[in-house]
Amino acid sequence: MAISQGQWHPYTDLASEAAGAVQGAARQQLPGVTVQEEQGDGFTVTRVHVHGPEGEQAIGKAPGRYVTIEAPGLRERNLDLQERISQALAREIEALLGLPADAPVLVVGLGNARATPDALGPRVVEKILVSRHLRDVVPAELRGDLRPVAALAPGVLGTTGVETGEVIQGVVERIRPRAVIAVDALAARSVERIGTAVQLADTGIRPGSGLQGRRVALDAESLGVPVIAIGVPTVVHAATIAYDTFQLLATRLKGRNAFFDLYAQFGPEEVRRLIDEVLTPAVGSLVVTPKGVDEMVEDMARLIAGALNAALHKGVTAKELMRYV
Amino acid sequence: MAISQGQWHPYTDLASEAAGAVQGAARQQLPGVTVQEEQGDGFTVTRVHVHGPEGEQAIGKAPGRYVTIEAPGLRERNLDLQERISQALAREIEALLGLPADAPVLVVGLGNARATPDALGPRVVEKILVSRHLRDVVPAELRGDLRPVAALAPGVLGTTGVETGEVIQGVVERIRPRAVIAVDALAARSVERIGTAVQLADTGIRPGSGLQGRRVALDAESLGVPVIAIGVPTVVHAATIAYDTFQLLATRLKGRNAFFDLYAQFGPEEVRRLIDEVLTPAVGSLVVTPKGVDEMVEDMARLIAGALNAALHKGVTAKELMRYV
Amino acid sequence: MAISQGQWHPYTDLASEAAGAVQGAARQQLPGVTVQEEQGDGFTVTRVHVHGPEGEQAIGKAPGRYVTIEAPGLRERNLDLQERISQALAREIEALLGLPADAPVLVVGLGNARATPDALGPRVVEKILVSRHLRDVVPAELRGDLRPVAALAPGVLGTTGVETGEVIQGVVERIRPRAVIAVDALAARSVERIGTAVQLADTGIRPGSGLQGRRVALDAESLGVPVIAIGVPTVVHAATIAYDTFQLLATRLKGRNAFFDLYAQFGPEEVRRLIDEVLTPAVGSLVVTPKGVDEMVEDMARLIAGALNAALHKGVTAKELMRYV
Amino acid sequence: MAISQGQWHPYTDLASEAAGAVQGAARQQLPGVTVQEEQGDGFTVTRVHVHGPEGEQAIGKAPGRYVTIEAPGLRERNLDLQERISQALAREIEALLGLPADAPVLVVGLGNARATPDALGPRVVEKILVSRHLRDVVPAELRGDLRPVAALAPGVLGTTGVETGEVIQGVVERIRPRAVIAVDALAARSVERIGTAVQLADTGIRPGSGLQGRRVALDAESLGVPVIAIGVPTVVHAATIAYDTFQLLATRLKGRNAFFDLYAQFGPEEVRRLIDEVLTPAVGSLVVTPKGVDEMVEDMARLIAGALNAALHKGVTAKELMRYV
């Protein structure tokens, strides 16, 4: 079944999925989007570059650079692989950050610490080696390129009454970091990517993204400094499962007698309407997540915190740093 | 579309759903199953009695009594309603328990405390007023009908290496309660029942039930004492969403030209195969749960613990008890 | 043994203790300090008013009003008493706040959520009914005097790298509350006050106070809005135990032959030096806390959150509010 | 000041402290006790062997072998040192265990997960790689010397109503391990040992030991299999601070005129009585612990779990094991 470009697709926070879905279907070069793949040892790095409004129109992602590291092996909790990916991620963070070794950085953990699939951000923040408060403690000769790192998990609107963006803006104005790194749980399009991919983007966080559907942007415009977003898909919207079932049905019926009748009845708009119907208001807020979500979130939080600690503290080793913590 | 009895249905732990699904379809009296409904103030009590193997065959639930209290209003976090349901639940627990006021009881919280949708049991246990160790502390004249209550959250196989059933058997042999009450997170068939229903059963816990799919039974046979199961649906298996989509498709197509062609192609077996196909091994372990799962589990844990504390400590008030805790 | 006024005293965050210690010893009216006691049902309310620098000099507390509610019975986890004190506290909060029913308020939970004796603030924040984000959700006719309440637990310097004061300043500038209420774990002078007293003050939080020894002030001057501090003693500094031993020794020796020799050797300065000696750097950061600190902190967090929810949401009942949360 | 042997000493769970305190005072060989010290890189290993009732009488510890690894550097959170000590501990565990590589072992985490200073045991258990349930999952050719390891945190009497010993006995009877390893938070005599020492003993857990003062024994006699105890001091009883003050006073007064008068008045019994007096019932349950207790407990839990995972899983690497977890 030919899915025409522009048709409804299940939502994904991953640019690599957004680009892939359309490309796979359209079998053509997407205007304003360049996609590059690179093979690592047990993982794939996909770089999606969205150029201007044309690119945004094509895949529904803000213009900017997106790097996705993907490794189905992460599902097996392979420690070696986790370590290799953490190192690869550290390199990508450094490259995207592009700051002097002593430029101050604020790490922000978005999401709800008490709801496991949404707890990625807060759990990363727990593991960050903060150093901003150590300047007066560390001897000058050791200070060298000690980067002032701060880390904050501002909680979610429902439990604080304050937009995450407001808290971050307030803190950024006070402590004036040179960049903000925002970690968030994401929604993927494919259940196979839950817990097996990390996305890095220089676009910041957009409204509507993330597991909670962020209400405000966290980006260079709203905060006045570059915002790097790091995310891991921890859920798939329930709608996606419905959509997949439909697609499978369509595929299975293809080539049989009844197919053309069916196809005539279900155009792109009907697909969308059908899914809207399956998703009653109650279902709309549902997400699909693995039973072992806690271990997955913990593993990925460790992987990302490890990468951040390595990328942010180049001048002083973590071991040296720990002495002053 | 006539779904013949015996066809595949999405799995549910709720007897009221199992009975309802089949009844709704078959529009006939189920053999060996009696269903009774009662209206409360803002909630419905459904009593399903499964008689012998005939009843078990009809709805796939072990013979015994199942009481479901259902209240869509729970979704709105209505405190009054929560209180009314907690009191109704306390009455049902007392009736099902049928023990003297001083007979010792063990409350068991099944599930994984660190994975929110599965944490219902451990969170209830945290809130139980235990009293088994107070016998020596409480003055004899106050002891009266003080029931020795113990409460245990034995963890899950994946993090302990021990079957929950083995831990419980070991403890039951040691402390010899007159009954075990096992609290567990359940899987429902309909997303509307997530967090809006409580099921009470005198059948204990069956293998395959619960969010994790219990591997062993916790029942009168395995433990040597009656086992009352209390559960709240916190998830729906991802398969159910796929199934719902198919059903909706079938309903929509009904009466149109293509319907008969389609129907010819999809018998009950094809439905099952199709869903199995959608559910790759990866998808098989996925569950659908609301984003606000943490608040929901906490509310329901408080409701159940409140009901248990009221039902188990009739002779001594909670306030009196707290003095010795 | 006559302890002259001005001598070293073990540190306390409680103004009632500070006034009492000196008064008890000096048996005279303290200059610039008025102390008033009031008896409740099972509890005592002590109002200390520190007038200007003279009062501050006398008891080492910033000028302002301090209200301490004290109830040894809280140790027994008496639910009725908890409820009565929560209501009394709500009245005191309202009186001290003195704001219109719809004036926005920010509740701040100071301290480290992961270190039990210091977790009071974050645990109170968890239980606050926030409403600031509900203005658009609640129907206008219900909104009435709905007070916009926000609640934040900004973490501690050691894990965020950011001074708590900086986070609060940033957020206050953004959301412009009319008052800030800061909840913090306190250090008492007497172990009997651990978990049995609540202090309310209109002076805000002073540097050096609290379990962690706050580094910066959180007060009207630093934040630009009134700051009400609410605290519960959860620890006693280890130094205090040493001091108590010394005092007891002195008392015991009094009237015996050796006493005068001893007394000649230990003037006020010697006492201080002796204690400094006992307290090696390692001991300096030690605190004394009960084994059952977790239950105590949880009980007191519930008591305070209950009082805050009642005092802040007068126009709309908690039950109504929950519908929109 | 000569403290005669047999005088009251502040309680300690550490055999090395118990032996040291008496030895230091008595300057003589203790009957029935052999003490051996060994220097590691940054740490000291002390082996205390208590021979029969004579040794027990001398230092108040059950007959058996005690190994204490002590490293003041742990206070500085030195990662290298943590790693070296973890490896040393792994070797000691293996030596004390003395079991074939595939003999089943049960790790038990004693203490209250919700009270930080007492949470060591439960936090170690969280980090243990359990494998007992993997026998059927791991391919036979990989199984090799896979040791079935189970791990349980049975909670505390106050929240379960069941003696920890009863739960463990029940589970041991069910799963029949060849040895039990019990991890517990300890009370030390010196604040300098909080978080800087690990004790390993082949005597199991004795009544009265640990932060909570265990009520029952967990040893070879009660469980029918050898019990190895692993502990870290996380608190000092508040009484100890009082005692230290007294000792310091006595030392300071020594050589001055008044000393002999003082000494005449305070014999061993008076010391005990004095301290009993300082410790009112309220104070009796108080413990001294550092403010940063959370990080300390987490660090030590990681160190111990790392040592246990290394010592217990020799045949299969942790990395291999993780694939099946």
Task: Outline the structure in words.
The structure is a homotetramer of 325-residue chains. With 325 residues, the first copy, chain A, is of the alpha/beta class. Chain A has a single domain, classed as HybD-like (Rossmann fold, 3-Layer(aba) Sandwich). Helix content of chain A is 41%, strand content 19%. Chain A contains 14 helices and nine strands. In chain A, strands 1, 2, 3, 4, 5, 6, 7, 8 and 9 form a nine-stranded mixed sheet that branches. The longest helix of chain A has 20 residues. The first copy, chain A, is globular, with a radius of gyration of 21 Å. The N terminus of chain A is likely disordered.
Please specify the SSE layout and strand pairing.
4 copies of one chain form a homotetramer.
Chain A: H1 15-26, E1 33-39, E2 44-50, H2 52-59, E3 64-70, H3 79-97, E4 105-109, H4 120-127, H5 140-143, E5 149-152, H6 157-160, H7 164-175, E6 179-188, E7 197-201, H8 220-223, E8 227-237, H9 238-253, H10 259-265, H11 268-278, H12 281-284, E9 286-290, H13 293-312, H14 318-322
Parallel strand pairs in A: 4-5, 4-6, 6-8
Antiparallel strand pairs in A: 1-2, 2-3, 3-7, 7-8, 8-9
Helix pairs in contact in A: 3-13, 4-13, 9-11
- What integer is the average pLDDT of chain A? 82
- For the termini of chain A, the CA-CA separation is 59 Å
The pair of chains with the biggest contact is: A-B, 47 and 48 residues
Secondary structural class of chain A: alpha/beta
- CATH architecture assignment of chain A: 3-Layer(aba) Sandwich
Organism (chains A, B, C, D): Caldinitratiruptor microaerophilus
Family (chains A, B, C, D): Belongs to the peptidase A25 family.
GO molecular function, one term (chains A, B, C, D): metalloendopeptidase activity
Function (chains A, B, C, D): Initiates the rapid degradation of small, acid-soluble proteins during spore germination.
